[in-house]
Amino acid sequence: MSEAFLQDPWVILILLGNYAFMILLFFIQRRLGKKNFRYDERYYQVNNRAKGRTWDIMLVVMLVAWPIIIMFDGISFSFFLITVLYILHCVIYGICAAYYNSKEE
Protein backbone atom coordinates (compact mmCIF):
# COMPACT_ATOMS: atom_id res chain seq x y z
CA MET A 1 0.00 0.00 0.00
CA SER A 2 1.15 3.52 -0.65
CA GLU A 3 2.63 5.75 2.00
CA ALA A 4 -0.07 8.38 1.47
CA PHE A 5 -2.83 5.81 2.06
CA LEU A 6 -1.18 4.51 5.22
CA GLN A 7 -1.01 8.06 6.61
CA ASP A 8 -4.65 8.90 5.75
CA PRO A 9 -6.72 5.68 5.53
CA TRP A 10 -9.95 7.60 6.27
CA VAL A 11 -9.86 8.89 2.68
CA ILE A 12 -11.38 5.55 1.63
CA LEU A 13 -14.37 6.28 3.88
CA ILE A 14 -14.84 9.63 2.15
CA LEU A 15 -14.74 7.90 -1.25
CA LEU A 16 -17.28 5.28 -0.14
CA GLY A 17 -19.54 8.04 1.23
CA ASN A 18 -19.19 9.85 -2.09
CA TYR A 19 -20.22 6.72 -4.00
CA ALA A 20 -23.25 6.20 -1.75
CA PHE A 21 -24.24 9.85 -2.24
CA MET A 22 -23.94 9.53 -6.05
CA ILE A 23 -26.07 6.38 -6.06
CA LEU A 24 -28.72 8.16 -3.99
CA LEU A 25 -28.70 11.12 -6.39
CA PHE A 26 -29.01 8.74 -9.34
CA PHE A 27 -32.18 7.15 -7.95
CA ILE A 28 -33.70 10.53 -7.04
CA GLN A 29 -32.96 11.91 -10.50
CA ARG A 30 -34.32 8.76 -12.13
CA ARG A 31 -37.59 8.94 -10.17
CA LEU A 32 -38.10 12.64 -11.00
CA GLY A 33 -37.29 11.98 -14.67
CA LYS A 34 -39.85 9.20 -14.92
CA LYS A 35 -42.53 11.39 -13.36
CA ASN A 36 -41.82 14.13 -15.93
CA PHE A 37 -41.61 11.68 -18.89
CA ARG A 38 -38.02 12.64 -19.72
CA TYR A 39 -36.98 9.18 -20.90
CA ASP A 40 -38.36 8.94 -24.45
CA GLU A 41 -36.81 7.53 -27.64
CA ARG A 42 -34.81 10.67 -28.35
CA TYR A 43 -33.29 10.57 -24.85
CA TYR A 44 -32.06 7.01 -25.38
CA GLN A 45 -30.77 7.74 -28.89
CA VAL A 46 -28.79 10.80 -27.76
CA ASN A 47 -27.39 9.04 -24.69
CA ASN A 48 -26.39 5.92 -26.61
CA ARG A 49 -24.53 8.01 -29.17
CA ALA A 50 -22.85 10.00 -26.38
CA LYS A 51 -21.78 6.81 -24.60
CA GLY A 52 -20.36 5.41 -27.81
CA ARG A 53 -18.36 8.57 -28.49
CA THR A 54 -17.15 8.57 -24.87
CA TRP A 55 -15.76 5.05 -25.32
CA ASP A 56 -13.95 6.20 -28.47
CA ILE A 57 -12.44 9.22 -26.71
CA MET A 58 -11.49 7.13 -23.67
CA LEU A 59 -9.59 4.74 -25.90
CA VAL A 60 -7.50 7.65 -27.24
CA VAL A 61 -6.96 9.00 -23.71
CA MET A 62 -5.67 5.62 -22.52
CA LEU A 63 -3.35 5.29 -25.50
CA VAL A 64 -1.94 8.78 -24.80
CA ALA A 65 -1.61 8.06 -21.07
CA TRP A 66 0.41 4.92 -21.68
CA PRO A 67 3.67 6.56 -22.87
CA ILE A 68 3.26 9.38 -20.34
CA ILE A 69 3.10 6.85 -17.51
CA ILE A 70 6.16 5.05 -18.85
CA MET A 71 8.13 8.31 -19.12
CA PHE A 72 7.31 9.65 -15.66
CA ASP A 73 6.64 6.56 -13.57
CA GLY A 74 8.39 3.76 -15.45
CA ILE A 75 7.04 0.26 -15.77
CA SER A 76 5.33 0.03 -12.40
CA PHE A 77 1.88 -0.58 -10.92
CA SER A 78 0.31 2.37 -12.75
CA PHE A 79 1.55 1.02 -16.10
CA PHE A 80 0.02 -2.38 -15.44
CA LEU A 81 -3.19 -0.78 -14.16
CA ILE A 82 -3.63 1.27 -17.33
CA THR A 83 -2.81 -1.86 -19.37
CA VAL A 84 -5.50 -3.86 -17.55
CA LEU A 85 -7.98 -1.01 -18.06
CA TYR A 86 -7.16 -0.94 -21.78
CA ILE A 87 -7.63 -4.71 -22.11
CA LEU A 88 -10.88 -4.53 -20.12
CA HIS A 89 -12.08 -1.68 -22.35
CA CYS A 90 -11.41 -3.70 -25.51
CA VAL A 91 -13.00 -6.88 -24.13
CA ILE A 92 -16.15 -5.04 -23.00
CA TYR A 93 -16.38 -3.31 -26.38
CA GLY A 94 -16.08 -6.66 -28.17
CA ILE A 95 -18.72 -8.31 -25.99
CA CYS A 96 -21.15 -5.42 -26.43
CA ALA A 97 -20.59 -5.31 -30.19
CA ALA A 98 -21.22 -9.05 -30.50
CA TYR A 99 -24.31 -8.84 -28.30
CA TYR A 100 -25.92 -5.99 -30.21
CA ASN A 101 -25.01 -7.50 -33.59
CA SER A 102 -26.76 -10.71 -32.58
CA LYS A 103 -29.86 -8.74 -31.50
CA GLU A 104 -30.09 -7.03 -34.91
CA GLU A 105 -30.70 -10.30 -36.75
Automatic annotation (TrEMBL):
Residue ranges crossing the lipid bilayer per the database entry: 12-33, 54-72, 78-100
InterPro entries: DUF2178_TM
Keyword presence, Transmembrane helix: yes
Keywords: Membrane, Transmembrane, Transmembrane helix
Protein name per Swiss-Prot or TrEMBL: DUF3796 domain-containing protein
Organism in which the protein naturally occurs: Ornithinibacillus salinisoli
Lineage: Bacteria, Bacillati, Bacillota, Bacilli, Bacillales
